[in-house]
Design goal:
It is a single chain. With about 750 residues, this protein is α/β, with parallel strands linked by helices. The protein has two domains: about 300 residues, no CATH class; about 350 residues, Cytosolic phospholipase A2 catalytic domain. It contains 31 helices and 16 strands. The chain has a five-stranded parallel sheet with strand order 8-5-4-15-16, sandwiched between helices. Strands 9-14-12 form a three-stranded antiparallel sheet. Strand 1 and strand 2 form a beta hairpin. Helix 2 crosses helix 3.
């Protein structure tokens, strides 16, 4: 190497040689070469923070805008900084245990682990700088934070790291005291008794003698490079002693981290203990990284094979033999199972039930009609709201508030049914309950107040992901009781609890609690229709009996061989106390985000798994049209026509982009990804065809009014709110102002004109 660089000036030659063969550069290259699994933790964090992974779900917000005690401030960033510092320490300890034995000169230093960590800090340093830059950009561009505010948050983050480093440095100094020295010596004695472990240690130490590495210098605190003497004598005793002490420290830190997560999980409902979700993830990653390091230390080349075999064995063991893994529907009885078979599905889909349920619904329609003058047929309104997480919940509420205000508070007077998916139904359910409270004179603030928009738009992602980390991914042990039945406090519970807190618990009801007020047409009916994963059917959840939604018209025989397209929840799970299902649980079942909101498993044999309604119809249009089809004769005879309000969080059409030339790998996955990316376009196409058919059946007395958060002329992917349970300040403002767009104002005028006919 020296010979190849003789053309460089002598000072630069020395500097270059000193740099290339320095300890920090050597460790960086070695980690890239040997410790790819450890570096993958950093890569995964980078992918999340940069938005390359789970961007649509707003995962990066957890790290760029951490919330603590409902505030994003210096305290929240300090906590995240401390957790990030813990992750750095876990990374360095793991690297030291795996590779520290190779560097014999460390044993001559007073603080070998500290010196190793300083020189192993290139990856953490680069990542930390990148993370801080992303935080500053996000706070300035999306949260419109002041320079002083950004400075405070950045300094708080760095202070959190510093505090953790100071704490651990004092801890490591303490380990040099006699107490922990004795503990380390005991560890050494135990290792000597265990032949397998001791052989592993000794074999590694033996290899050191044959792996002399040329390292010219190392970084020494605070800002200097020190030369290294590579001719130091090999000191097996000193190296073993340092190794034993470091291994003991690693075990203690793992225990502390696990106990910390356990305590945070135990007191998760105490606001003070509800860490920012980013901090929870850093703690979880620290544990996972150290466990991974331990596996690779003891098993070495067999580690990957061991992990694969472990996953296969875990998959083969029936889950019932380990623990109760199911995320349950709160309020239901799981002591007995419903028979989930084709025979029972067909048995419940009989014409007698269809006829009885349709006649009962006609009574509701008659009660609704009685609110209007006999000689003046009213418009009957259906409201379908699309899915889309918190952005849809907020946009739906905003649209309903505005539409109701321009109609002088009479929107729900004319509305008979709510349908929809995911977050949209949460916003609709909140508005419907507010209207009920208003009618019952229980509302202290006017229903059109921005206060309610602020409440529904509050963060739901942080407590959900915090519960995922401290409970669902490790151990669920806390339970709560409803009607004598016990359930785990999983992340579904955390989401529901936060929703109830944000909405002053006005949705704390069972689905059956709405049966009477819906029957009296005091408020519109609501049809919640999540998708059954097992067979793709819909699960129709309503306070009313709606078996007619599962097939065709109730008065006709099924002589066309039609498939039963859905299952009526209340009738199917009657013995499992379906009426006691919590209303918020029904909404959550309808809004199941993969990996974020857990799949609910219902008490049946085999188990029935539930997913988001958006899998079948993200916009709720098909269910509303099916209801119109069933009762088209009554609608034609008793109303002045139908107005369907479609509240969407995305445009029906997007501008066609010029596709860049795809690589070979992109071309392989293009057919599959193309279908997945256009699933909502396919749903819109099916819904449009149904609209044409039903409008013809209603003799052209069907009008559609669209409210769109974004339309084809205003959509900007860089400004579109993420599909998440978290909104930034900018996104909240954008959603509130979207009602003033040219498209939506035309829709408002169209609605006013239709309702005045």
């Amino acid at each position: 190497m020296k010979a190849q660089l003789k053309w460089l000036p002598k000072p630069l030659h020395r500097l270059f040689f000193k740099l290339i063969f320095s300890f920090p550069i050597h460790l960086l290259i070695y980690n890239i070469k040997k410790n790819q699994v450890l570096l993958s933790f950093w890569l995964l964090l980078w992918a999340v923070i940069s938005g390359q992974l789970w961007k649509r779900f707003g995962a990066s917000y957890l790290f760029l805008d951490p919330e603590y005690l409902n505030e994003v401030n210096g305290w929240s960033f300090m906590i995240v900084g401390m957790a990030f510092g813990g992750f750095i320490i876990a990374y360095n300890i793991t690297c030291y245990i795996l590779d520290g034995y190779r560097y014999t000169f460390l044993s001559t230093m007073r603080y070998p682990l500290l010196q190793f960590s300083l020189n192993n800090g290139i990856v953490p340093l680069v990542f930390g700088i990148y993370y801080l830059i992303k935080v500053i950009q996000f706070q300035l561009n999306y949260e419109h934070e002041t320079l002083l505010g950004v400075f405070i948050k950045a300094v708080s983050f760095l202070l959190g790291i510093l505090l953790l480093f100071v704490f651990t440095s004092y801890y490591f100094r303490f380990t040099r005291k006699r107490l922990l020295r004795n503990l380390a010596e005991n560890v050494d004695k135990k290792l000597k008794k265990g032949q397998l472990q001791r052989v592993n240690v000794m074999e590694r130490l033996h290899n050191v003698q044959n792996e002399r590495v040329t390292i010219t210098s190392y970084y020494a605190f605070p800002f200097r490079m020190e030369l290294i003497n590579n001719e130091l004598p090999y000191n097996r005793k000193a190296i073993t002693k340092v190794f034993d002490q470091t291994q003991l420290n690693a075990v203690i830190i793992q225990i502390v981290l696990l106990i910390s997560l356990l305590l945070f999980g135990l007191f998760r409902e105490v606001p003070l203990f509800q860490l920012p979700a980013a901090a929870s993830f850093f703690l979880l990653f620290s544990i996972a990284l150290m466990i991974t390091g331990a596996i690779f230390y003891w098993l070495r080349k067999w580690a990957i094979t061991f992990l694969i075999i472990g996953i296969v064995i875990w998959k083969m063991i029936p889950s019932e033999n380990l623990f109760d893994p199911y995320h349950k529907a709160f309020g239901m009885d799981y002591s007995q199972d419903a028979d989930y078979s084709l025979d029972r599905i067909h048995q419940l889909g009989d014409m007698a039930s269809f006829q009885a349920d349709s006649l009962k619904t006609i009574e509701i329609l008659e009660n609704w009609r009685a609110k209007f003058p006999k000689d003046s047929p009213p418009k009957i309104v259906f409201i379908a709201s699309s899915g889309g997480g918190l952005r849809s919940a907020t946009w739906t509420l905003r649209s309903l508030q505005h539409a109701d205000s321009v109609l002088d508070g009479q929107l729900l007077e004319n509305t008979i049914l709510f349908t929809g998916s995911s977050g949209g139904m949460i916003g609709a359910a909140y508005f419907r309950e507010l209207k009920l409270r208003e009618l019952q004179h229980q509302l202290s603030v006017p229903i059109h107040s921005p206060k309610y928009l602020d409440k529904i738009a509050r963060d739901k992602l942080n407590p959900t992901m915090f519960s995922l980390v401290v409970s669902d991914l490790l151990f669920r042990f806390q339970t709560f009781e409803i009607n004598g039945h016990r359930y785990y406090k999983d992340r579904g519970y955390a989401l529901e609890r936060k929703l109830l807190i944000d909405t002053d618990s006005i949705l704390a009801k069972s689905i059956f609690d709405y049966r009477k007020v819906e029957y009296e047409a005091l408020i519109p009916m609501m049809l919640i229709a999540p998708t059954i994963v097992n067979d793709g059917r819909k699960l129709y959840i309503s306070a009313q009996d709606m078996s007619y939604m599962t097939l065709g018209r109730p008065y006709e025989k099924n002589d066309l061989g039609l498939k039963v397209r859905g299952i009526e929840f209340r009738r199917f799970f009657k013995a499992q106390q379906a009426d006691s299902l919590r209303f918020t649980t029904a909404l959550r079942m309808n809004a199941t985000f993969p990996y974020i909101t857990p799949n609910v498993i219902l008490p049946s044999t085999p188990r029935m798994a539930i997913m988001d309604a958006g899998l079948s119809d993200n916009f709720g249009v098909s269910d509303a049209l099916h209801f119109m089809y069933i009762f088209k004769d009554w609608i034609k005879a008793n109303t002045d026509g139908v107005v369907m309000i479609s509240i969407r969080d995305k445009p029906k059409e997007r501008k066609i982009k010029i596709e860049e030339q795809k690589g070979k790998l992109d071309q392989v996955f293009a057919p599959i990804s193309g279908v997945l990316l256009n699933i909502f376009t396919l749903q819109d196409g099916n819904n449009d065809r149904l609209l044409e058919v039903v409008r013809t059946m209603l003799e052209d007395r069907l009008d559609v009014v669209d409210f769109r958060y974004l339309d084809v002329n205003t959509i900007d992917l860089h400004q579109e709110a993420s599909l998440s349970w978290r909104l930034t300040s900018t996104e909240k403002v954008g959603i509130a102002r979207a009602i003033d767009s040219e498209f939506n104002q035309k829709s408002v005028q169209k609605l006013k004109k239709l309702m005045r006919k």
